Amino acid sequence: MSMGTQLLLTAELVVDGAVPREPALSPDGRWVAYAIAPVGHPGERRLRTLWVAAANGSSPPRRLTAGTAADSGPRWAPDSASLFFMSDRTGSPQLHRIRVDGGEAESLTDWRGDIYDFCPLADGRVAVVASDEPTEEDERRRAERDDPIVWSQQSGRGRLRLLDPSTRELRVISDLSGRHVAELAQRPDGGPVAVVSWVSREIDPGAITNELHVVDPDTGIVHDLGRVAGHARSPVWWADHGTWHLAYLAEPNPFGGFAVYDTVPGASSSPRDLTDGMHACPTDLAQVADGPPLALFASGLDTEIHRLDPGPLRFRCLSTTTGLLGSLTASTSGEAVAVLATTAYQPTDVHAGPPDGPLSRISDTRPELGRIEWGTQERLSYQASDGLDLDGLLILPAGRSRADGPFPLVTLVHGGPDDRYADQFMLGPHSPGQWLATAGYAVFLPNPRGGTGHGREFSAAVVGAVGGGEWSDIIAGVDMLVGAGVADPDRLGIGGPSHGGFMAAWAVGQTDRFKAALMFAGICDWGMLAAIGEYGSMDGALAGSFGWEGTGPHPHDRVSPISFASKVRTPVLIAHGEDDTNVPVGQAIYFHRALSRYGAEHELVVYPREEHGLAERNHQRDLLLRTRAWFDRWLGAPDSR
User: Strand (E) positions, 69-199?
Assistant: First the structure.
């Protein structure tokens, strides 16, 4: 868990590190490109650097770009000799290209609109998703500050365009009836492009109005495949005896977990669910030339790599890795993959190898953390009050064992709710497990129903019923740890971000067992969230109603923490980003006003310029320090060792 001379974990050490992002394995399988980003950036601009490493670990990673710009989204050219990427080095985010063997990056676009996505094509051209450039009238209005926002006008939607890198010409391929292009992937033989489109760029209703298209990049001819399930993403092509299939991830119902669907363009049959009945949950798909795709599956506390078996059209597990894998990318042959991986004591790094394992780490972005003494992380398995099998994690105070208990216990609930805790490294401003463990706390990380990793029925269990079964699942885990002598029943805390923040706010209105709570970017009123949150109708479905069904009371009132504010006796730290559009800051202000009305001890902290998660370094540091100080104050600082 540690090596060499021990190092004291400070908030500065947490937020001043770096994390890898967006791995991309070259088509020939020799190289992995990825971005390195600071954990917390010092100002509003978020700089990123591109790196490349030998996939077999034969040479150390080397920097491709200088780190003086926001470089992101590396995508390989078909010949594996160069990379396309986005960068704001010329003043605004534009498409660039750089050779892997060195040299300066060249700018390929000078577009005055927004570029949302791109896909290198087999013939050297690039499919680009970009909004229209502003007209002279747009520029005049902007200069005169005559800028009303008219929601019915779909400004900023991404249209499918084609870039010729030699001429820098960028032209529209197809308008797709005015729909916003969300994602695209070319058929591996250089044929048409699969396109996922939304009715508009707004998440609500865009993410649940998905349509699938096949577009010829030369003629612009579009073959519409019709409406598909919500949140469709990761389209991949594969061929079976000369017949091309198109597979993709999508959610059959909001917050019910993803499925892999498969369709044959031109066939009359409906898309087929390839994951129906599976206990594991798909999270990523990767294109493999013309062969069946590879996929990542969340399975309990671990992650599996699967390959589609073309015969029965079912996924077969190739390997299981302890902890969390993400961002799956594969070589053309499918004989090599690269992922982001993290385990209990190892932060996220780039790993590569054959899909049937083992995967080897090829980056080392946080070597300084190897000198920290971490709390022992245990895998938990227990049952809910109704007998449902559950799992989770327990982090013991650093340097302590169960025999040293009981300890003050902080329960940290994950967001989503369709997310999970894998057996991963828990250190960060929004997941401060080890941050609290190194201060003497035991930390409980439950995976209640509603999350991923246990099949679609498990994930859908809380839709229309938040705060019910998931709450009893969390309490069952706390009771287990109290009964085992790990948790001090008089020194219990609870917290979490987003949906975890909702659960913290819900907890303090249901019981006085917790002596302190942290509500970060949390929900207190589901009707208000359905009204103004960016997920809108999806949040209303999750809570059971919207507020416009009549005079009420409404189902969502029964599951909104604001309805129970008069009962709160637990001190609550409320923290929120001022520019959060997912869970707008009004949720925090509303809960603050209600707690003030009833005299409940609490503190409201609003972080300027921040969205649903904190990005700025100083804000991250503040949240870490404030979190620990809050639990120290109300639970009593843990005994020193």
Answer: 72-76, 82-87, 94-99, 106-107, 115-120, 126-130, 159-164, 169-174, 180-186, 193-198
Judged by DSSP in three states, 572 sits in strand
Out of 39-43, 142-146, 295-299, the most confident range is 295-299
What is the distance between the alpha carbons of residues 633 and 621, in angstroms, rounded to a whole number? 18
**What are the Cα distances from residue 141, in Å, to 91, 135, 144, 153, 156?**
22, 10, 5, 15, 16
Residue 61 to residue 50: CA distance in whole angstroms: 10
Task: Tell me, yes or no, if the pTM score tops 0.85.
Answer: yes
CA distance 267 to 273: 16
In whole angstroms, give the CA distance from residue 257 to residue 259.
Answer: 7
Phi, psi of 541, rounded to the nearest 5 degrees: -65, -40
Q: Which amino acid is at 52?
A: V
Considering only CA atoms, which of 24, 37, 23 is closest in space to residue 77?
A: 24
At 168 the three-state DSSP class reads: coil
Nearest Cα to Cα of residue 414 among 491, 494, 516 = 494
Nearest to 121 by CA among 168, 162, 87: 162
CB neighbours of 632 closer than 8 A, spacing ≥ 6?
Answer: 439, 638
Measuring CA to CA, how many Å separate 528 from each of 15, 335, 444, 575? 33, 49, 30, 18
d(CA 421, CA 424): 7
Lowest-confidence segment of 34-43, 354-363, 440-449 by average pLDDT: 34-43
* Among 637, 618, 291, 284, CA closest to 493: 637
Pairing outcome for strands 442-447 and 407-412: parallel
Please choose, from the candidates 568, 563, 636, the residue with its C-alpha nearest in 3D space to the C-alpha of residue 602. 568
Q: Are 24 and 76 a contacting pair, CB within 8 Å?
A: yes
Give the 3-state DSSP-derived string for 332-369, with helices as H, strands as E and coil as C: CCCCCEEEEEEECCEEEEEEEECCCCCCEECCCCCHHH
Burial of residue 439, with CB atoms counted within 10 A of its CB: 0-12 exposed, 13-18 middle, 19 or more buried: buried
Tell whether the model's pLDDT for residue 171 goes beyond 60. yes
Number of Cβ within 10 Å of residue 589's Cβ equals 15
pLDDT tens readout for residues 611-639: 999 999 999 999 999 999 999 999 998 87
Q: What is the structure's pLDDT at 640?
A: 46
Q: How many residues does the chain have?
A: 641
Residue 150 structure tokens? 């008219």
pLDDT value of residue 641? 39
- With 0-12 CB in 10 A as exposed, 13-18 as middle and 19+ as buried, what is 312? exposed
With H, G, I as helix, E, B as strand and everything else as coil, classify residue 508.
helix
Q: What percent of the chain has pLDDT over 90?
A: 90
Cβ-based neighbours of 229, under 8 Å, separated by 6 or more: 210, 250, 251, 252, 259, 261, 271
Question: Which string of DSSP letters, residue by residue, matches 47-99?
Answer: -BEEEEEETTSSS--EESS-SSSB-EEEEE-TTSSEEEEEE-TTSS-EEEEEE
Cis peptide preceding 205, ω within 30 of 0: yes
For 568, phi then psi, to 5°, come to -70, 125
Q: Which CATH superfamily is domain 369-525+560-635 in?
A: Alpha/Beta hydrolase fold, catalytic domain (3.40.50.1820)
> What angle (nearest 5°) sits at the alpha carbon of residue 188, between those of residues 118 and 278?
90
CA–centroid distance for 37 within its chain = 16
- List the strands of the sheet with 72-76, edge to edge: 72-76, 82-87, 94-99, 106-107
N- to C-terminal Cα distance for the chain?
A: 18
